[in-house]
Design goal:
about 50% helix; 4-stranded parallel sheet; Four Helix Bundle (Hemerythrin (Met), subunit A); RNA-binding; elongated; Rossmann fold; 4-stranded antiparallel sheet; alpha/beta
RNA sequence: GGCGACGUGGCCGAGAGGCUCAGGCAGAGGUCUGCAAAACCUCGUACGGCGGUUCGAUUCCGCCCGUCGCCUCCA
């Protein structure tokens, strides 16, 4: 089955044929590091992260590059506002950006070039463009002359005439054509600058991506991606300068652009004050997987209208998938299979697994239809729960193997989507085991102290002080202790105490399920509840 | 003004000329359970309007209405 992708350049879905068989070079426009990244950025980075993961899953050797724009007006302005240097701002923001990417489960980028590290390459390109007559120098600035490049407009599907129709910006009179764009900007006083043959200055925005993508991937590389807003002028200009420079085409084989994200039906903009940062989402205790799921429930080219309610819905949906894996684990631990049943590679195993995989691929091969791919997972989840019930009633080796296989394929396909399911023994030591520790760090202080209060109210033993010190280090232990108290209460049918404990834990965002497992009572930290509590306390 | 996208059941959202059905969230009833939770079962006669093509269109074409994006920095 061949992979088809929508190419902005042609406006059609096309079969993806790499420049070099089995290898894909991919360049995604990265952030200008002047602030924390917002969820619109995140949508873009997550979308292309999944595309990269899927390409690798398909067996392609992918080189994934994402630049960091660390010199720009916005950075300079920010530095001025904060009375610091542009370097300082970009360093801080770059670090924050990398942290956010990791939180979102975006795999590390293979090459992460910075604009300021590639000034010589850019100067080289600009010089050649001047030599070839595509660019001209005016008073320390260098402009690209769009009328010299006959394909100008081919990406955004507009002619120069059409573009002029919508002019609403004052035109620099030194430009030969209003659409000419800066390759090099003359330095203003007190701005970071680099020496050049045309005087001190700094690069224009578009040239960095051309210089860096050509350096690391070379002319005619496979995929160049970014937000839809970059189609014009950024990517259009990249094509112009790169193809003019190289005297060849195409610069890029496939152009991919993700749809925009709005907030409550409004464009996310600083002027509207509705920018939501990735950090804010994480600080508000939402599960990063839920945000990822929210993105993936939409096709990457479609717009998304973001609201916190939708994020909560995605949280529920994610937990639905995660519950299955936890339930499988528990069942595998609890139910012992009679040793007489033999292990068979039953037809069912291969059928369910291979059908799921095939449907998933079919969806993803169609321009990365993650929404349809997710439906495959949800369908499997339903089927698996039914099998699970049967297994509990009649634990055969065959059923066990099937459940293990289903668990594995969940991890396999979940990984392609970058979804990280919590705890499971199915993959043994390969996956991070309890996510619990991580989650605990996110618990608001007050909740933790509430938990302690509850604990101390329940336990009046003489060793309280000592216990306190010890337990503070291990939230899980306390919780298990509380759950143990509850368990004993339930055993003597003291429903009042049992229910009281459960309700109070619920009030802290801890959901308790009366399912016996070898590890004790089952409990789950519920993001949703925490959010509710958090909202109420504000 | 120019270019373009979109309009699917309470909400979100895939999708295809007719085939039984996307999927998720929410809601109702039921099964299980001390009660919950989780899970499962059942429940919605959806495709903006008007024409056209067709044996048949929500899916193709045209027009209209509506929403949004780009044309300026923006993922």
């Amino acid at each position: 089955m061949s992979l088809r992708v929508y190419n902005t350049l042609t406006g059609k879905k096309e079969e993806l044929v790499p420049r070099e068989e089995g290898k894909i070079g991919m360049y995604v426009c990265g952030p200008t590091v002047y602030n924390y990244i917002h969820i619109g950025n995140a949508r873009c980075y997550v979308s292309f992260d999944v595309i990269r993961r899927y390409l690798r899953y398909k067996g392609y050797k992918v080189i994934y590059i994402q630049n960091i724009t660390d010199i720009d007006d916005k950075i300079i302005n920010r530095a001025r506002e904060e009375n610091t240097t542009a370097e300082e701002i970009s360093r801080k923001c770059t670090r924050a950006y990398l942290e956010d990417m990791e939180s979102l489960g975006v795999e590390p980028i293979d090459v992460q070039p910075k604009a300021t590290g590639h000034i010589p390459e850019m100067l080289g390109m600009i010089e050649k463009l001047i030599q070839k007559g595509y660019a001209y120098v005016v008073d320390g600035d260098v402009f690209f002359e769009v009328t010299k490049f006959e394909d100008y407009g081919k990406l955004s599907h507009r002619t120069l005439e059409e573009m002029r129709a919508g002019e609403r910006v004052e035109i620099d009179p030194r430009k030969r054509h209003p659409m000419d764009f800066a390759l090099w900007k003359k330095a203003k006083p007190c701005e970071p600058s680099w020496p050049s043959p045309w005087g001190d200055g700094r690069p224009g925005w578009h040239i960095e991506c051309s210089a860096m993508s050509l350096k690391y991937l070379g002319m005619g590389f496979d995929i160049h991606a970014g937000g839809q807003d970059l189609i014009f002028p950024h990517h259009e200009n990249e094509i112009a300068q790169s193809e003019a420079y190289a005297g060849a085409k195409p610069f890029v084989r496939y152009w991919l652009h993700n749809g925009f994200l709005s907030i409550e039906k409004e464009k996310m903009a600083k002027s509207l004050g509705n920018v939501i940062l990735v950090r804010e989402i994480l600080e508000r205790k939402y599960n990063p997987n839920a945000l990822r799921l929210l993105f993936l429930e939409h096709h990457y080219r479609s717009p998304i209208d973001f609201t916190l309610d939708r994020l909560s819905e995605s949280t529920e949906a994610f937990e639905r998938l995660e519950n299955l894996l936890g339930d499988i684990d528990d069942a595998l631990e609890v139910c012992s299979v009679s040793s007489t049943s033999q292990i068979e590679t039953g037809e069912d195993v291969s059928r369910i697994v291979s059908e799921t995989r095939a449907k998933f691929k079919e969806a993803m091969d169609d321009d990365f239809n993650t929404a349809a791919a997710l439906a495959v997972l949800f369908e499997l989840a339903k089927e698996a729960h039914i099998l699970l019930q049967n297994f509990k009633a009649n634990p055969t080796a065959e059923a066990r193997d099937l459940l293990i296989e289903i668990g594995k394929i969940f991890f396999e396909l979940g990984k392609v989507l970058g979804l990280e399911f919590g705890l499971s023994i199915i993959q043994e030591s390969k996956i991070k085991l309890p996510r619990t520790q991580e989650l605990l760090k996110l618990l608001p202080e007050k909740m933790v102290s509430d938990l302690f209060d509850l604990y101390f109210e329940l336990s009046q033993g003489p060793d309280t002080k000592e216990t306190r010190a010890r337990l503070k280090e291990d939230f899980t232990k306390i919780l298990n202790t509380i759950l143990d108290v509850r368990k004993r209460a339930r055993e003597r049918k003291d429903w009042k105490t049992a229910d009281n404990i459960r309700e109070r834990l619920n009030g802290m965002g801890i959901e308790v399920r009366d399912v016996d497992t070898p590890r004790g009572y089952k409990w789950k930290f519920s993001f949703q509840r925490v959010i509710d509590i958090y909202e109420r306390s504000r």
